[in-house]
Amino acid sequence: MAGYILKRLLSAIPVLIGISVIVFLIMAMIPGDPATAILGSYATPENVAALNEDLGLDEPLVTRYFIWLSNMVQGDFGRSFALNRPVLDEVLERFGATLVLAGTAFVLCSVFGIAAGVISAANQYGFGDKAITFVVLLGISIPSFFLGMMMILIFAVNLRWFPVSGMWPIFGDRTIWVLLDHLAMPAIALAVVATGVVARLSRSAMLEVLRQDFIRTARAKGVRENSVIWRHALRAAMVSIIPVLGIQAGFVLSGAVYIEMVFQWPGVGRMLVDAILRRDILLVQGGVVFIAACYVLFNIAVDVAQSLLDPRIKT
Amino acid sequence: MSNFLRLLARNKLALGGLIVMGIVIFFALITPLLPLADPNVTNTADRFQPVFSEGALLGTDHLGRDLLSRLMWGTRLSLAVGFAAAIIAATIGAAIGIIAGYYGGRTDNIIMRGVDMLMAFPYILLALAIVAALGPGLLNALIAVAAVNIPFFARNIRGITVGIANKEFVDAARLAGKSDASIILSEVLPNVIPVIVIAMSTTIGWMILETAGLSFLGLGSQPPVADLGSMLGEARSALITNPHTSIVPGMMILIIVMAINLLGDGVRDALDPRLKSGALSRPMPATRVDRKGPIPEAEGDDLLALRGLETQFHVKDRVYKAVGGVDLNVRPGECLGLIGESGSGKSVTALSVMGLVASPPGVITGGAVYFEGEDLVGAPYSKLRRMRGKRVAYIFQDPLATLHPLYTIGDQLIEAVSCHRPIGKSEGRAHAVELLRQVRIPNAEKRVDSYPHELSGGMRQRVGIAMALANDPEVIIADEPTTALDVTVQAQVLTLLDDLRREKGLAILFITHDFGVVAQLCDRVAVMYAGRIVEQGPTDAILNAPAHPYTSKLMACVPELGEGRRRLEAIPGLPPVVDKLPDGCAFADRCHVATDACRRGEIPLDPLSDKRRVRCIHPVSDPATEAAQ
Amino acid sequence: MSFLNLSRRAALALTAAAAVALGGLSPATAQTPPGVLVVGQIAEPQALDPHAVTAVNDFRILMNVYDGLVRYASGTLEVEPALATDWTISDDGTVYTFTLREGVSFHDGSPFNAEAVVFNFERMLNEDHPFHDTGPFPLSFFFSSVDSVEATGDMEVTFTLSEPYAPFLSNLAYPTGLIVSPAAVEQYGADFGRNPSGTGAFRFEEWRSNEAVVVVANPDYWDGAPALEAVVFRPITDANTRTAEMLAGGIDVMVEVPPVALGEFEGDAFTIHEQAGPHVWFLILNALEGPFADVRVRQAANYAVNREAIVNDVLEGTAEVAAGPTPPAFAWAYNDELEPYPYDPDRARELLAEAGMENPEITFYVTEGGSGMLDPIAMGTAIQADLEAVGFDVTIETYEWNTFLGRVNPGLEGEADMAEMAWMTNDPDTLPYLALRTAAWPDQGGFNSGYYSNPEVDALLEEARTATDQDRRAELYREMQVIVQEDAPWVFVANWVQNAVTNDRVEGFGLEPSFFLLLHDVAKN
């Protein structure tokens, strides 16, 4: 197992280097530069050139890439032009917030998606199945940003059940309850689509499994139906659900961009959108490489989980 | 194609989606012809008119533009972009996937690494960066959305292609000297297209959402042109004051994407061959019971007695009479063989006993199953469950499929006990080891932690038997337990069963299609054909002198030890389809002694001698003559 | 059936969880404490180093943490003493000598004196200064005419200019002229922007990334301790969310209220504040080539745009119709006799006919948003509709702000015929000098992206910049406005009336024509 993990980690390195090249090239291709962004209305070509020189952007592209890469390997992600602080500090701080939001949404979508899929499959064509199928369909069809806007309008502005935005209140203690209060709406809005996808997949995976012979065996043994569904069938269905959870994690992370914008969540997605708009090159590059690395690691973790779950997979 | 449309139309939800999409597309197409206000003419004095205002059915937006008109034009644009993005992504993604999957090796490796890279890139940021690089505009948003979705298609299609590229017909085409390009186009592509269509139909909705998302961020269509996303984006600042300007495009997106998703599901269901064969349905915990006629009374003191058991399969509007009134009985310590061809209904009979026939589509429509005088068919599920495995246990064919692949055999053995009585961890383990010893699995302490795939077929079958024995049941129903095994192992398993029967006084109902097996193990035998018992009696008597022509034909197929197995193809013709059973004897069409009388009325199971019964009006009197013919 | 039980159990658990979430948690709309003002900002500040930033959004914080040598008197754009108590200007207008206020300390405890002032300007202007690398200082060209800064006494500073430069005092009152603590710069270096120290009414307390910047009262403030205990600046980039927060009580003050949301704040619970400022929103017309090379077509565009509808309907009265290049907020330099172009589509069509161009094709650059751009997409769309109504054939191209600037500032030649633009300035000199002179064409480093050229205007602007007498300057600017309006290098559209909303707990709040947010006199119950 350790050897397998090591092998996977090593094979992630070229992927990450590739990503660093892609993001570097994209940022180099985007018209406009940080100097224009910083100078705003005062960005004359003259001022822009002078400022770009100050920022070290007048070097040739290849030189810039290797300087960046070698610094990054040593743990120095550079400084954000716009925020005037080290990229890594900003990314880590913001990534924490995203992790709380996307992590919660991921847990919600996994738990509720799988539960909905299982209940739906177990009651196939029954009322519960139809109701869940309908809600799930609604869930995967609604744009998350629209849902978020509507939730703010209804639950925050009109009913005042939840705070409108932000992660922490400005005043008072930072308790877990306060966090949950702020987290509820954005996490749900973010989780809805993924929950739908997971539920649909879980349902069909469960239906597939429930027709298998070993389910009949379990029933013939006199296993209680709950145990047949949740222990026997779900365990086997997880083999095809887990890879989808891995993909959904990526979607949730990406979808967080909209939700972070609508709910003013201080996360890394919104940071990167702002950074792209401000041409904050180093922040975009560092942030993307960091997120991609996390995603790659997460996928390795998914594969490891998969092999732990399924003894038939040789590692 | 027409088959596909028929399947699609049969799915009510998909039909609903199709109708909604049809309406939306119809209106989108004729939008230019409708007497709508110009979508881009502003009239700022009449801004934010509410819904149902005069002259503006859905009201007006922040610049006083007619929302209905903008909605229609916007829908038109959003649909076009969504479809275009899906087609572009599918085409390019499929091309990449096919190339990677077909050529394999280094090409595959390099391409898939690239795909991995793109997938590790947060897709919205990638789209955002692409739009930032190309400049805003709906066309560029389309390119971005298509681009970020290419990896998903590529990965999907590659998997399918790898499977196809290794198929014989592709090898054959290669040997025939066809070029790679023509193999891809003529052999691979046609097999991949359904998958592409399925992937596309399930992602168009997603594409429309994503395009709307980019437009929402202001990176899509250029003002004053509306698409649904940009309408939502522009209306957002007025969300609190004039929510209708947001709700109108928001709901439209919801409706379109919902309809597309319903339709997409329908397309997938109609195209997916696994689903085509029968609705993907899961069996309920117990077979449905719907007994029309009177319930036969229990007779005698048999341990297990089937009386007039009828089990049918209801598929759509067809009714398959798998079991058409079967009477069987087993006493303690006795082994009853139930023999017949595949599809004769013997397995369904066996499964009906404990309500294990998959339902839907199975339904028990008549008769009774008496266990110690109590009717199991009418018993509530909870009672049935308590008896399953504890008093009546099953051994199934093909133990690789019938054992749970992800639990150790020890866990599965312990569970067989623990679902009937609480059992401690160490006690359970000891019991499991003991059970494995009973079925003569060597090295049981170690084997108990093995997974089914780590064992050989014979070992797995022994585990299946051990599991049946776990609770010391009174009856074991063995459904072709030796069919998947080779002959030596088969013999070992039969010996084992026979020993156990004698040691424990078990009653065994043994289902097989093989007289050799019957001869070895069974006291009595019942021969089944087309859902009914055609002959029944002591094994020796029937083996020596089969009375029913079917029995004698069947016996002609007895494999001799060492000669391998022979199949029942020796009997000319095929068994009748059980949804169209003929009048009279179901075997008449394959029988060389059949007369007109055989094809009329109900032929009863008449006593032939003291212990024998046969359902035939021309029973074979002299087995020797029969064999000679 | 057992699953039914299970799903019922799940539903129960869910309901219970929801009940906890809804009822069990702290009330979502906890009142903000008295004495602490929560301000809804439009974005996260870039830095709290006044020399390093350019955005009005950042200025709103900085003006409360720092002081300059001079400041704008409340409600005007006239300078008055701040950290300098007095100053003299040499007769030729090139030597400014400031007497500094005694007994002022920076928040970090270091003293404010002439050396500190010299440090500030040397840091920005002198590339050899040891702390010049803590920049960049994008607006240092405000002081490009400064030849030298010297401490001519412990509490006296002398600036020598290379040539007379009338806007100098006004520029000193701008955030770029705010004085930072040299000790803090020495301590934090490039991180000074996150650890600011000034002499202002509020002391920096904490910066929680993307959540809040907190400043607390400076009890030793030379102009009297502020009434508030603390101010919290919350960045809420989404205007809609900002409105929702204001309605829900999460913020006390909201700046830049979206026009469409103003209706929500009518009533006693809120007060809407308005203040016109030195802002002008205009369309740059490409006078070098294409249809707008003809002055009649440029005038036709001015007649065709319905400014009244834009300011009253699209902007809901958050702007006033602009008559010329100089905003009325520069009261002393504004020409009151200037009448805006009337909305006259017929006249526009006539002019187009005269010019022989009934249906000129035009490419129109629109931005998605940016400093002072108000509601650029809606406005651009309305303008496009108006122009189409008189015969123009307009194609809009939208760019996000930085790309937009990257396209517009190098000049419209070969790219577009028309572009949106807005400027907020502190002196009537700035905008016309940078954007209307022949010598300010993009290739010469200016912002005259439409290539307008009129030697008469060039001469007037040069003279106004070097004249030391304000009355004379005013006369020159008024003359310039008449000529420029007639030449129509721009379509003059609107002057922003800045707005803000406060809730009923806030007292003493007022907006400034400078667009700064000054909270020294504000109180909250």
Question: How are the elements arranged and paired?
Answer:
The complex is a heterotrimer of chains A (315), B (629) and C (525).
Chain A: H1 2-29, H2 34-39, H3 45-54, H4 61-73, H5 87-122, H6 127-141, H7 144-158, H8 176-210, H9 213-221, H10 225-262, H11 268-278, H12 281-309
Helix pairs in contact in A: 1-12, 5-6, 5-8, 5-10, 5-12, 6-8, 7-8, 7-10, 8-10, 9-10, 10-11, 10-12, 11-12
Chain B: H1 2-10, H2 12-30, H3 67-103, H4 105-120, H5 123-134, H6 138-165, H7 168-175, H8 180-216, H9 228-235, H10 244-271, H11 273-276, E1 288-289, E2 304-315, E3 318-330, E4 335-339, H12 346-353, E5 362-371, E6 374-375, H13 381-387, E7 392-395, H14 399-402, H15 409-418, H16 425-438, H17 444-447, H18 457-469, E8 475-479, H19 487-504, E9 507-512, H20 515-521, E10 524-529, E11 532-538, H21 539-544, H22 549-555, E12 606-607, E13 613-614, H23 623-628
Parallel strand pairs in B: 1-5, 4-9, 4-10, 7-8, 8-9
Antiparallel strand pairs in B: 2-3, 2-5, 5-6, 10-11, 11-13, 12-13
Helix pairs in contact in B: 1-10, 2-3, 2-10, 3-4, 3-6, 3-8, 4-6, 5-6, 6-8, 7-8, 8-9, 8-10, 9-10, 15-16, 15-18, 16-18, 18-19
Chain C: H1 2-24, E1 36-41, H2 56-65, E2 70-72, E3 79-81, E4 84-89, E5 95-100, H3 114-125, E6 146-153, E7 156-161, H4 168-173, H5 182-188, E8 202-208, E9 212-217, E10 230-235, H6 239-248, E11 253-255, E12 270-276, E13 279-285, H7 295-304, H8 307-314, E14 319-321, H9 345-354, E15 361-367, H10 376-390, E16 393-399, H11 401-408, E17 418-424, H12 430-435, H13 455-466, H14 470-487, E18 490-503, E19 506-507, E20 523-524
Parallel strand pairs in C: 1-10, 1-11, 15-16, 15-17
Antiparallel strand pairs in C: 2-3, 4-5, 5-7, 6-7, 8-9, 9-10, 11-18, 12-18, 13-17, 13-18, 14-18, 19-20
Name the descriptors.
heterotrimer; A: 315 residues; mainly alpha; 12 helices; 78% helix; B: 629 residues; alpha/beta; MetI-like fold; 8-stranded mixed beta sheet; 5-stranded mixed beta sheet; 13 strands; disordered C terminus
- CATH architecture identity of the domain at 2-31 and 57-275 in chain B: Orthogonal Bundle
Instruction: Provide the succession of SSEs of chain A.
Output: HHHHHHHHHHHH
Query: Low-confidence parts of chain B, pLDDT < 50 over ≥5 residues?
Result: 561-569, 623-629
Structural class of chain A: mainly alpha
Under CATH at level 1, the class of the domain at 2-31 and 57-275 in chain B stands as: Mainly Alpha
β content of chain B, as a range? 5-15%
Number of strands of chain A: 0
